[in-house]
């Protein structure tokens, strides 16, 4: 009886338990299912966010990493240099003259060649969200070598996750090479619509052509590549993840080198150190090791880091954001300065730039620029690139900083840059911050290398009083001798500046002296001073350290320092004013 009662009680309790358990289990099941979904979404967001904060380094390989790649054999495979047989030398030389790179060599290499994975090891272990934005890769080209252009396309197709690559948009900037006409059109049919080609009806230059490409593209993100690139392993997801997190980030891959003679693929910065884009006051693009302040923000060496600017050619951006910023200033012509325009605009108007160590892309650095600037170049008085710089600094620099530019490029003050009122209106409309803000918060390392420039006391041609001749840097790389040449009045290598701190400069270089003679030298980074002093009375250029004067040897027509002598006409110099 008791036994039965106990048993009954137990059965009753079990019954009650079951009654309670059913809804609980049901609730738990649905909740955990929902929770699992939430967690997946959260993780994908988190992974995107971690592109800046802490990457989720997973066991084994991260997603989108290639597995079981077949072995390949042939010229140039794995990015090895390829040397054409001697009988092809003429063909190779001719193609180098035509393209600034050895297209004959490129033609011998597979369009699908493998290249070595040059990323940091830990890049293989990152996990990226699956639903990264769809991407239009935009490649503008003007008379590029066919095989180099198509290898760029093949590498993008082969090394990008299919569902992220919306299209490759080729924009022809009025090429006249035969093989870029029908042959190109029929070749791209094999990509089943993934590769689209549009053509300019006249030469626009790369800057306007890129803006056109951005307008025509239909992906959410645009990625620009030069027409002679090879993208490396899993290059795309790390570029997209920061943009997925924040649509106002521009991302930039690390740019490896491809040799223009042998097509060898060479990693940059193989020492594991990171560099970022800066500039000197003549607006030449420079790279600088990432400062400690920025390094410290990162938990892993493979994480993206902020950069003041970028080289220009290769980057990713939300398409609509690019257009909201007015694309590139349409007044910039053909080539140069657009990288600064876009960088300053992004930073000062509320966006940011991140360089992404886990995204690597190879780029062929040409031996020389094989094309001219066409009609657009001829229209303008003064060098077109400096005119572009002037538009950019007049729009984005504060007055104080404009002076540094004009000190370094004195002739630019006289160039006609056209109308920038629309650019200024955009800056106002978007309520963009000052250049001082940019220097204090983003480009704070520029001054370490390139301090503010003291004003020029004198600038112009530096002429000898005794002989009809001018100092000339001759376009040589330092260390080299300073030449004496016929005075041509156009400036360039004959435009010499003496600043208030005694530095004698020509372009971005310095004129220095030692016991052997007077030389063209690299200016010491971080300093703007020098040993020179000019006396308008005696017309002497005194070297204060050696207490000697710059002299011209009338026989050898070479420069040296010799004891100052007011009666020696060969020690007398005049700065002659230059104008465009
Ligand atoms: O009139 C032109 N029309 C074009 O469509 C002239 C050029 N182009 C095309 C050309 O075919 C190529 O695909 O534009 C692209 C860039 O021209 P390049 O390769 O002759 O330029 P670059 O590599 O010498 O120069 C760098 O600076 C340029 C300044 O305007 C551009 O920003 C380039 O994209 C840029 N290249 C890079 O940043 C790659 C990294 C190397 C560096 C520095
Ligand atoms: Mn290029």
TrEMBL record:
Biological process, per Gene Ontology: protein O-linked glycosylation
Subcellular location: Golgi apparatus membrane
CDD domains from the UniProt entry: beta-trefoil_Ricin_GALNT7 (cd23437), pp-GalNAc-T (cd02510)
Transmembrane segment boundaries: 12-31
UniProt keyword Membrane present: yes
Span list, region Disordered: 59-87
SUPFAM superfamilies: Nucleotide-diphospho-sugar transferases, Ricin B-like lectins
GO CC annotations on file: Golgi membrane
Keyword Glycosyltransferase tagged: yes
UniProt KW keywords: Disulfide bond, Glycoprotein, Glycosyltransferase, Golgi apparatus, Lectin, Manganese, Membrane, Metal-binding, Signal-anchor, Transferase, Transmembrane, Transmembrane helix
InterPro entries: GalNAc-T, Glyco_trans_2-like, Nucleotide-diphossugar_trans, Ricin_B-like_lectins, Ricin_B_lectin
Membrane-topology descriptor: Single-pass type II membrane protein
Record PANTHER family: N-ACETYLGALACTOSAMINYLTRANSFERASE, N-ACETYLGALACTOSAMINYLTRANSFERASE 7
Similarity field: Belongs to the glycosyltransferase 2 family. GalNAc-T subfamily.
Protein's name in the database: Polypeptide N-acetylgalactosaminyltransferase
Organism field: Hermetia illucens
């Amino acid at each position: 009886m008791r036994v039965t009662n106990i048993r009954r009680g137990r059965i009753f309790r079990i019954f009650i338990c079951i009654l309670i358990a059913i809804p609980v289990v049901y609730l738990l099941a649905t909740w955990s299912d929902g929770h699992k979904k939430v967690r997946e979404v959260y993780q994908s967001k988190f992974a995107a966010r971690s592109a800046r904060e802490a990457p989720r380094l997973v066991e084994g390989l991260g997603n989108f990493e290639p597995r079981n790649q077949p072995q390949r054999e042939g010229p140039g495979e794995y990015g090895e240099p390829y040397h054409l047989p001697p009988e092809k030398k003429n063909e190779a030389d001719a193609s180098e003259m035509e393209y600034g790179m050895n297209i004959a060599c490129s033609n011998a290499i597979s369009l699908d060649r493998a290249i070595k994975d040059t990323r940091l090891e830990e890049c293989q272990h990152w996990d990226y969200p699956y639903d990264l934005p769809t991407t239009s890769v935009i490649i503008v080209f003007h008379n590029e070598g066919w095989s180099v252009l198509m290898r760029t396309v093949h590498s993008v197709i082969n090394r990008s996750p299919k569902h992220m690559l919306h299209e490759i948009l080729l924009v022809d900037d009025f090429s006249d090479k035969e093989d870029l006409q029908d042959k190109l059109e029929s070749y791209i049919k094999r990509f089943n619509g993934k590769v689209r080609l549009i053509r300019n009806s006249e030469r626009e230059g790369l800057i306007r052509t890129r803006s056109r490409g951005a307008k025509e593209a239909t992906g959410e993100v645009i990625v620009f590549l030069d027409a002679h690139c090879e993208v490396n392993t899993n290059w795309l997801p790390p570029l997209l993840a920061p943009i997925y997190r924040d649509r106002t980030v521009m991302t930039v891959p690390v740019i490896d080198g491809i040799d223009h003679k042998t097509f060898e693929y060479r990693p940059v910065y193989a020492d594991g150190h990171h560099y970022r884009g800066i500039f000197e006051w003549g607006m030449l693009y420079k790279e600088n090791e990432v400062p400690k302040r920025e390094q410290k923000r990162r938990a892993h060496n493979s994480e993206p880091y902020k950069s003041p600017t970028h080289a220009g050619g290769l980057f990713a951006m939300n398409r609509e954001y690019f257009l909201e910023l007015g694309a590139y200033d349409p007044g910039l012509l053909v080539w140069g300065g657009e990288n600064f325009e876009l960088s300053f605009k992004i930073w000062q108007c509320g966006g940011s730039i991140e360089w992404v160590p886990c995204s690597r892309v190879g780029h062929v650095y040409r031996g020389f620029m094989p094309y001219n600037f066409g009609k657009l170049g001829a229209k303008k008085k003064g060098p077109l690139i400096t005119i572009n710089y002037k538009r950019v600094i007049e729009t984005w620099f504060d007055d104080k900083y404009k002076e540094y530019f004009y000190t370094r490029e004195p002739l630019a003050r006289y160039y006609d840059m056209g109308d920038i009122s629309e650019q200024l209106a955009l800056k106002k409309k978007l309520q963009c911050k000052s250049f001082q803000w940019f220097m204090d918060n983003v480009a704070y390392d520029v001054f370490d290398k390139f301090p503010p420039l003291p004003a020029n006391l004198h600038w112009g041609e530096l002429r000898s009083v005794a002989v009809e001749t001018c100092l000339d840097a001759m376009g040589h790389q330092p260390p080299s001798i300073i030449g004496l040449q016929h005075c041509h009045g156009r400036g360039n290598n004959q435009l010499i500046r003496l600043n208030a701190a005694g530095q004698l400069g020509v372009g971005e270089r310095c004129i220095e002296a030692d016991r052997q003679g007077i030389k063209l030298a690299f200016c010491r980074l971080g300093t703007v001073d020098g040993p020179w002093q000019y006396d308008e009375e005696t017309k002497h250029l005194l070297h204060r350290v050696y207490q000697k004067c710059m002299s011209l040897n009338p026989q050898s027509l070479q420069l040296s320092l010799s004891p100052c002598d007011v009666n020696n006409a060969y020690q007398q110099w005049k700065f002659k004013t230059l104008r465009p």
